[in-house]
What we know:
Blueprint: E1 2-4, H1 7-19, E2 24-29, H2 35-47, E3 50-55, H3 65-70, H4 75-85, E4 89-91, H5 95-98, H6 117-120, H7 124-139, E5 143-147, H8 151-163, E6 169-173, H9 193-198, H10 201-214, H11 219-231, E7 236-245, E8 261-269, E9 272-279
Parallel strand pairs: 1-4, 2-3, 2-5, 3-4, 5-6
Antiparallel strand pairs: 7-8, 8-9
Amino acid sequence: xxxxxxxxxxxxxxxxxxxxxxxxxxxxxxxxxxxxxxxxxxxxxxxxxxxxxxxxxxxxxxxxxxxxxxxxxxxxxxxxxxxxxxxxxxxxxxxxxxxxxxxxxxxxxxxxxxxxxxxxxxxxxxxxxxxxxxxxxxxxxxxxxxxxxxxxxxxxxxxxxxxxxxxxxxxxxxxxxxxxxxxxxxxxxxxxxxxxxxxxxxxxxxxxxxxxxxxxxxxxxxxxxxxxxxxxxxxxxxxxxxxxxxxxxxxxxxxxxxxxxxxxxxxxxxxxxxxxxxxxx
Length: 281
């Protein structure tokens, strides 16, 4: 695996690949890799000659300094996993390489970045859009791969790519889960044993809500049941549970078309914030 920490050598390397008509796939990550990330690598490798995994903990998407400081950093283990997965290129820059000066550019996605994660993490998606734009310009991939666990992020990046005419095909890859249903996430590494057990409330709440809505129970009643589940689970706290159109994330007050509906949830187990989502159909 070729490892680059600087932009220009990476661009030279990729230009040589493109000169012989090789396609490039990009998998943007913040490291602390797990099987979910590796599924993105696998998807890219199946569709491209060269897969580039970026590993960069982007400071501009954190609205909580403590969260940035505590984000797990496991570079040696990440390199070993990528090599085993057959990833061709790792791009792991330092902050000064990605941001010569503090980022000034701000993005506004209208209502799309004001709801759900945007409501509770103001500025988060502007930071995501900034770093993704940088990575798209640097790598100039033919395809880019994002996990569907970060459902709103995928919609934000799709709008970004469309508005700025990047000419990159985006691929959403299904969420991988632990045997007990917990969505794989780098943040899971911060959970102690007791909190790890409590974290299954996110999956169980989504599954309960899905079945209730399919049984034509009103969304207001389903919301109430989800809130009650968290209130009765010590050490957990719900931030939001919503149903939305899976294409544009318009929030629903009632579910009329289950096939178009995604359920989204976020909250805390102890001090660790987790998110998850599930399609009704």
